[in-house]
Write a structure and sequence with these properties.
The protein is built from 18 helices and 11 strands. By secondary structure, the protein is an alpha/beta fold.
Length: about 475
């Protein structure tokens, strides 16, 4: 018998298959119409020629080539790209886009292999911005500013609409003056998912603001004898568990390092904030769903969608839970900003994530690749049909204008709008970030499973991180 997770993701790939078939049919009609329009008006001329077309609309039949893009499979990344592809074919009839999906849980490792292989077989990689420093260190990415400078109107619209805290992640170093290596249509943050119906039935009429209040909800909703669990998060050993700990630490006012600059880079986990973060997480784990310690996004979303998990106060944003094709409870799962600690330095500081596109330094189709990722990131500036197709195909925009425009049909966009202004990066944007995340996660798991005390785990975190930083030359 298929597990719930297998059933859910069979649905995901069935939706992908149906979309591919629908796109093929639409393409024939759209390309026929586009050909007639070209004959009448001349391709490549800028200017709005329909109600949906914005100031950035243009077409070009002179650019040709095949663009191969590797991307995480299913919702949020593959499906939105497929959704906007017919419009791209309308604008650039001589560019072929080959979308190569792979499991999201494998894409970090696979992405590093692809980016550093020096092979021209990949033109675009759509992956986590936390990998950008490592890619840059390997000279694997093509600088994008020369491309952006050719269309300053488009780039100004993109830059003004995507929060700086998000777009900086695609520069190296991660600052407004860093080299631009990527664009992102996809914004995300750790959000606070809850079941409105079950909270109301339990007499809870307030969305928890602090972790102590969240613990009360966990306790009230936890009914393991009925296969209903009061807490779930992405706590798989390694990076996933490390980011849960970092999210908790951030909510208590903590940080990775004393300062991220010369003379600093000394880890700051073994203190009162680190202790409170792990202590609170340990208490939350008393109510955990059985899959929690092996959970990535896939497992969490499946458990929330089938109703065995009913509360996820620190879980990556997703449209899956409000989609009736995937969720049994699409109308009663609400979202808000993650809770905060209860100390003077505590604050709502959700982790910010998201994926974006880089162009491989070894691509032989860079001009075509630029037009493709530019189209994917265009929103209403080029054509309102792009943003509509992106959102309706399960996309999660980084553009603030689109979060506001579509929040009525994507309830979790409200949580994202609330979170982006106060969010912090889910990793320190240095090449060693994922290695350090694994160290944090391994020690976090050791605490949750009772292998180590909180004190010993925090000491081991600092020792392990300090060793990596020393080996990498951060201490001169």
């Amino acid at each position: 018998m298929a597990t719930d997770r297998e059933s859910l993701y069979k649905q995901t790939f069935e939706q992908t298959r149906r979309m591919k078939m629908a796109i093929t049919r639409r393409q024939m009609l759209q390309l026929t119409a586009a050909t007639a329009a070209v004959a009448a008006s001349g391709i490549g001329l800028r200017g709005a020629r329909a109600d949906t077309q914005g100031p950035g609309w243009y077409t070009d039949d002179k650019i040709s080539g095949k663009v191969t893009m590797f991307v995480s499979a299913g919702q949020r990344w593959e499906l939105p790209a497929r959704g906007v592809l017919p419009l791209f074919n309308e604008r650039f009839p001589n560019i072929e886009v080959d979308i190569q999906p792979g499991p999201h849980s494998e894409m970090v490792t696979k992405g590093m292999m692809l980016a550093t292989s020096k092979s021209p077989s990949m033109d675009v990689l759509y992956t986590d911005y936390g990998q950008w420093p490592a890619f840059a260190a390997a000279d694997a990415m093509e600088p994008l500013q020369p491309f952006a400078d050719k269309d300053p109107g488009w780039f100004e619209d993109y830059s003004n609409d995507v929060p700086t805290a998000i777009s900086m992640g695609y520069r190296v170093p991660a600052s407004p003056d860093g080299t631009l290596y990527g664009l992102t249509p996809d914004g995300n943050a750790k959000l606070h998912f809850y079941r409105r119906d079950l909270m109301e039935a339990a007499g809870i009429d307030k969305i928890p603001d602090t972790w102590e209040e969240a613990l009360e909800v966990c306790k009230a909703l936890h009914r393991p004898d009925d296969d209903q669990y009061g807490f779930i998060t992405t706590a798989r050993r390694g990076g996933f568990a490390g980011w849960v700990f970092w999210g908790m630490l951030a909510s208590y006012g903590g940080a990775w390092f004393d300062k991220e600059a010369e003379g600093g880079w000394h880890p700051t986990f073994n203190n009162d904030k680190g202790y409170k973060a792990l202590e609170t997480l340990t208490r939350l784990m008393e109510y955990r769903h059985p899959v929690t310690l092996n959970a990535t996004d896939d497992e969490c979303n499946t458990a929330l969608a089938n109703g065995t998990a009913v509360y996820a106060p620190i879980q990556w944003g997703t449209a899956v839970l409000n989609n009736p094709e995937f969720s049994q409870f699409p109308d009663v799962i609400g979202t808000d900003i993650v809770p905060k600690g209860d100390t003077p330095e505590s604050a709502h500081r959700p982790l910010m994530g998201g994926l974006g596109q880089m162009i491989s330094a070894y691509s032989e189709n860079k001009a075509a690749a630029w037009e493709w990722i530019k189209h994917l990131n265009s929103g209403d500036y080029v054509d309102a049909r792009i943003s509509e197709a992106y959102v309706m195909s399960a996309g999660q925009p980084a553009r603030i204008s689109l979060l506001g425009k579509y929040e009525d049909i994507r309830p979790h966009f409200v949580g994202l709008k609330k979170s982006f202004p106060v969010a912090v990066s889910f990793v320190s944007t240095i090449p060693e970030a994922f290695t350090l995340s694994d160290i944090l996660g391994n020690e976090t798991t050791a605490v949750i499973t009772g292998e180590k005390s909180i004190e010993d785990a925090l000491k081991a975190m600092e020792k392990g991180v300090e060793q990596v930083m020393m080996d990498s030359g951060y201490y001169g």
